[in-house]
Amino acid sequence: MSQLNVHLHQPHINRAAFDQYLPYLQSLVAKKDEKSTHLYLLPELFLAGYPPMDLCFDPDYQNCMQKLLKELDSFFQSLASNHHFLIGALEYSEQGLFNSLLYARGGEHGRFIYRKESLPNYDIFDEKRYYQKGENQRAQIEIEDFKIGLLICEDLWAAIPTNRWSHDLDLIASFNASPYHLSKGQQRIARVQELHQKTNLTPIAYVNSVCAQDELIFDGASFLMENKQIQVLKSFQADGLCYQLNKQDQKKVYADCPAHPRLKSASVTEVLSDLQCEELLQALCFGLQEYAQQCGFQKFLIGLSGGIDSGVVAAIARLSLKDCQHIEAVYLPSQFSSSLSLSLAQTLSQALDIELKHFPIKFLHSTLQREISQYYGEKLEGLSDENIQSRLRGLLLMTRANQTGAMLLNTSNRSELAVGYSTLYGDSIGALSVIGDLYKTEVYQLAHYMNRKYGLIIPQEMIDREPSAELRPDQKDSDSLPNYQELDLLLERIHNCEHSLEKLVELGHQRETVIQVKNLVHKAQFKRQQFCPILKIKGQSFGLGHRMPISSAWNLK
Question: Is 103 helix (H, G, I), strand (E, B) or coil?
Answer without folding.
Answer: strand
